[in-house]
Amino acid sequence: LRTLVISEPTGAKLKATAQAALTKFQHWTDKHQLKVSTEKSTTILISRLVSGPRVKWDNQIIKRSTSLKYLGVIIDNKLNWADHLINMKTKLTHLHQKITRIAGTNRGLNKDLRRRLYKTVTERMILHGAAAWAYPLSARQSRLLNSIQRKFLLNITGAYSTTPTAALQVIEGILQLHIKAEQEAVYVRTARLRKTSNYNNINFNLNNYEEGTTSTKFHPAIFQLEDRISLKKQFLPVPGLNIFMDGSKIEDKTGSAFCVMEEDTTKY
């Protein structure tokens, strides 16, 4: 799977740059004796241009589409993510039908298991890629997410179909899906993408949160013994108080320790 993202101010420049990129990529595929299927290749134009440029691969025009699927997320040419949410609703409707057929509305699997299935399967499927499509959410998207969540809440509670969605959410203590999606989006943007985010007039500055450590960049077999223990600081302390903790356990006894530092001064 190869994806080329090209941005230019005019249609003519966009066509020239896109064709040049495809030509360069074609030289690489020819060199490595790889074949690209033109029938399975698509282009998508995210622009106000009525008719965008046509690009070719091996003298064949690559078909244009209004949307494409990339890493499980459907990207549409208007970037309103309507196609993605509609597709997700269809997929989860089928999932709900299967769960209902197996577990029934109020018998079969017990309530705790149905709730666990929702939290670990359904909710995670819906929130996939939320950092892209759920920041921010429109009113239409919020209503669509609530309609998706409602079916599963009815299955968990076994309540009447006329029960309001808000009542089901309060009874089960399950967060509204559009709020959960925005929460997920803000977390990913701030903690992983390292971007400043805003939710409900609350600003989340990336400088206020520690950055995760990077994974090992070499094979463990070549890791020298003397390099396995390091006394160097692994985290850059943030301004103000920094708390470091450690602990150990022997049989049924547990010990813990902590150290509070401000700048380079040990407070506790």
Give the key terms.
single chain; 268 residues; alpha+beta; three-stranded antiparallel β-sheet; two-stranded antiparallel ribbon; 7 helices; 15% strand; Reverse transcriptase domain-containing protein
Q: Which residues sit in consecutive blocks of at least 5 with pLDDT less than 50?
A: none
Report strand order across the widest sheet: 7-8-9
- Going by helix content, strand content and strand pairing, the class is alpha+beta
Helix count from the secondary structure assignment: 7
Tertiary shape: extended
Mean pLDDT: 83
Q: What string, H for helix and E for strand, traces the elements in order?
A: HEEEEHHHHHHEEEEE
Question: How many strands appear in the DSSP assignment?
Answer: 9
Sheet with the most strands, sense and barrel status:
3 strands, antiparallel
> How much of the polypeptide forms β-strand, as a percent range?
5-15%
Please give the alpha-carbon distance between the first and last residues: 54 Å
Query: What is the alpha-carbon Rg in Å?
Result: 26 Å
**Amount of helix:** 25-40%
